[in-house]
Design brief:
The protein is α/β, with parallel strands linked by helices and 384 residues long. It is built from seven helices and 18 strands.
Length: 384
């Protein structure tokens, strides 16, 4: 087997000021703070007219594919910048506009967290998969970005939940956009054939009425709970979860599921887990926590497993791609020391990885998440 190494994110080496050791840890952190501050101000100005117009009909986030209306309320007295964000997905689905609108109105007041920004978006479509269509990922990202910059949300305190068709969405988006959330709770939704391996670092709750027999919801939800039990036996430090099949309840659980909010609020996202398992779901993505893959090779079912070990060591134990990019900072590794990368136990890289301003700017632009503004990248290419 032959290995080639490509070192990215050191394009500033082409500039006179970057010859040598690249940015120091202190300089990189100072540059990072300025980049994030500039991003916050830019996004705040982008949404200023909408957020402070006083016209609720203007509250929305948009992409080139769709527009998603929003309703939100702020609860508690948590300081600006440290608030939680609760994204609450309504039911309905493949029915009429009027029914989905009614379900949206219901969702606005279905739950009330102790603190934070509670957002009930209105699905852009009237379809069973309205919360997990391919076009919706960017809308969730824009919603989070908007609330972080205009409402003082902590990006590491974002929670996802949803009821019925909204629960269908939670099953799929919590496993697809796992790295965006601190915890998630699924209420009365159908899991379909979604995989659960990606939930290693995401606390997850399952709620379903014992008598919710439509589409076999109760049976399938219980089976997914047992699957998480099995995964946790293999990885005892991960797959934190609870399964509640509520006795005597059907599709409506009489708000017993509201207990999920107190459970979720105990958790904060760790954007830099030392162990990452990533399996592409039905809609594929390019990034997951601190790793990324070639856009042209994204395909359902492809897997990566990577761990950071003592000794500034990265171990790749599974990779279905021709190469893998490690997005790095000094919380993950000591970038002032030599980094060692192993694949299937064989060392494939040993050397320094330099910090650069260009990498900080590029990753902030790509991810639009302060926690994923990385000063360095290392791409290892694996070929047969």
């Amino acid at each position: 087997m032959k290995y080639r190494i490509i070192l990215l994110a050191v394009t500033t080496l082409l500039m006179p000021r970057a010859f040598g050791r690249g940015l120091s840890r202190e300089t990189a952190e100072s540059v990072r703070e300025k980049i994030i501050s500039s991003w916050r101000e830019r996004v705040r100005l982008q949404y200023a007219d909408m957020m402070w117009s006083g016209d609720a009909s203007k509250l929305q986030v948009s992409s080139s594919e769709a527009t998603m209306p929003l309703w939100y309320a702020v609860y508690g007295n948590t300081p600006f910048g440290r608030r939680s964000l609760w994204i609450s997905l309504h039911g309905g689905g493949g029915t009429t506009q009027e029914v989905n609108n009614q379900q949206w109105e219901n969702q606005k007041r279905l739950y009330r967290p102790d603190e934070g920004v509670y957002v009930a978006p209105r699905a852009p479509w009237n379809a069973w998969n309205m919360w997990c269509k391919p076009e919706i990922d960017s809308l969730y990202e824009r919603l989070i970005e908007c609330m972080v910059c205009t409402q003082g949300v902590d990006p590491d305190r974002v929670f996802l939940m949803g009821y019925s068709a909204g629960g269908d969405g939670v099953w799929r988006m919590a496993t697809r956009m796992t790295d965006h959330f601190a915890a998630a709770s699924m209420m009365a939704g159908h899991p379909g054939i979604v995989g659960l391996r990606n939930l290693l670092n995401l606390p997850y709750m399952i709620w379903c009425g014992e008598q919710d027999h439509a589409y076999n919801r109760a049976r399938l939800c219980a089976a997914k709970g047992r699957e998480l039990d099995s995964l946790q036996r293999i990885e005892p430090a991960g797959y934190v979860h609870e399964t509640h099949i509520v006795p005597g309840k059907g599709h409506w659980m009489d708000r017993e599921d509201a207990a999920a909010l107190r459970w979720m609020q105990r958790y904060t996202r760790n954007p830099y887990p030392k162990h990452v398992i990533w399996q592409q779901e039905e809609e594929v993505r390019q990034y997951f926590y601190w790793i990324s893959v070639p856009p042209s090779e994204r395909q359902k079912g492809r897997r990566v497993e990577v761990q950071i070990k003592d000794g500034n060591r990265v171990e790749i134990t599974e990779c279905d791609y021709s190469h893998l990019t490690l997005n790095l900072n000094d919380q993950l590794l000591d970038l002032d020391r030599r980094v060692k990368v192993f694949y299937h136990g064989r060392q494939i890289y040993s050397g320094r990885v330099q910090r650069s301003e260009s990498c900080l700017r590029r990753t902030m632009e790509e991810r639009r998440d302060p926690s994923f503004c990385f000063p360095a990248q290392l791409t290892v290419t694996i070929g047969n």
